[in-house]
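Quick bug: Prepilin peptidase output formatted oddly.
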Amino acid sequence: MSWRAATSVLLRRGADSREGRMIGIAALVGLGAAAVVTSLTFAPGFSGWFGAALALLTLAIAVIDARSFLIPNELSLAVFALALVSTAVGAPEGAMTGVAFAILRACVLGLAFFALREVYYRWRGREGIGFGDVKLAAAGGAWLDWPMMPVAVEIAALAAIAAYLLVQSAGRRRIDASERLPFGLFLAPAIWLGWLIQTGNFGF
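Here's what came back:
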């Protein structure tokens, strides 16, 4: 059974009853509320509110990608636009300079993902990274500082590998290098987590 089939089965089982649907909704509401509270707790002022909005957007992206292997362009665009507004409001070097650097970071990370997509396609002859992931990476680059971009990507990649191995192990299935994964499920929260690490007042 593939990753997509396995997750579909789990989702169907959870949605087979009204109780299952209510539990799923309650879990998502709880996750969203926890992310909002965390953003407001560790990031001061307006930054925390922007981070809270980012948390909700990335949660929505993760849920949709997990269910459909699709990252809506509208949500990625919203993440990108919110980053520019947040930067314009809080950039210490000034709004114009901050926004310019945010766009530059978005272009760099988006192009890095696009290059990886092209290299993988030429090497394996099939798509490894979807355009949705490329667009989401670009949007995430607008939020993350230069040192945090590779950290967020590594967090997402390690989480994806761990989740895949867990699913395969639970089903006692062999590892399949051609298996598709909804990478946005892991990249979207990693973007928020990267923002939280670089912005939050953790005392280090």
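Actually, after a second look the formatting is fine. The chain has eight helices and no strands. Closing.
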